[in-house]
Amino acid sequence: MPKLPPLPQIPVPVRRAAYSEIRRVITQRSGWLIPAGCAGSGLITGLISGGTGSGPRDGAQIATGTVTVGLYLAVLVAVIAAAVSGAAATGAEYRYESISLTALFIPDRDLRFGAKLGVTALFSLVLGLAAEIGAGVGLALLGHSEVQFGLRLTGVLLGGLLATVCWGVIGASLGLLLRSTGLAVTAMVGWCLVAEPLLWLITRGIGIPGFAVLLPDSATIGTVAVGSFSHSPFLSPGAVSAVVLILWTAATGALTWWKLRQREI
To answer: Fewest C-beta atoms under 10 Å: which of 56, 108, 173, 178?
Structure first.
């Protein structure tokens, strides 16, 4: 009987870098409290919307029905938590001046960068799963008769996980790029709450509101709210929004990687 080829083993330096970042997460209290908080908030919002919302209606803005509003709120909490924790994971290296010590044990900058963003993406995925599971339990308890599980709701769940992972990576990239957790969080808050809404108004005022679909906020909403707000000129279909959000994530990561290789630690 022919033998199967051996599975490729992960190189030791890669394992060492990954384990180092994983230990950094699981040995901190926040590494356990944040997922629990996401799950708890999801459970609460799921119970509230499950007990008060209704199922899908023809012509309604929310395609999956108001009963699933709690799920969207849970995803929003997970996205914010992922972005902030990602920025904190990398920005804290400069705040506590531990980046030189990290570089001593992991001198390869590419490996160090990949390990940080990879573990951040994994932790962000955990946050998204915790929030959606919590919301799912709440909906199952009080809103199971109104929720219609199908391809559209599946798209919302998958889109929520993708958005959470992307914003976690964006937060981690900005923490490294700006060398500060506070600056990274301020940049994300300023863009999401001030700059992009202002750009929406400007593009609408000059008659090209469709340009807004290329912006990260719009892409995030379109990725999560699959089929909802179909008449909005600021949102594109879910698949297109997902691609745009991935491109923003990749661009932020690529810029950070380039700057990390260029400047002194």
So the answer is: 108
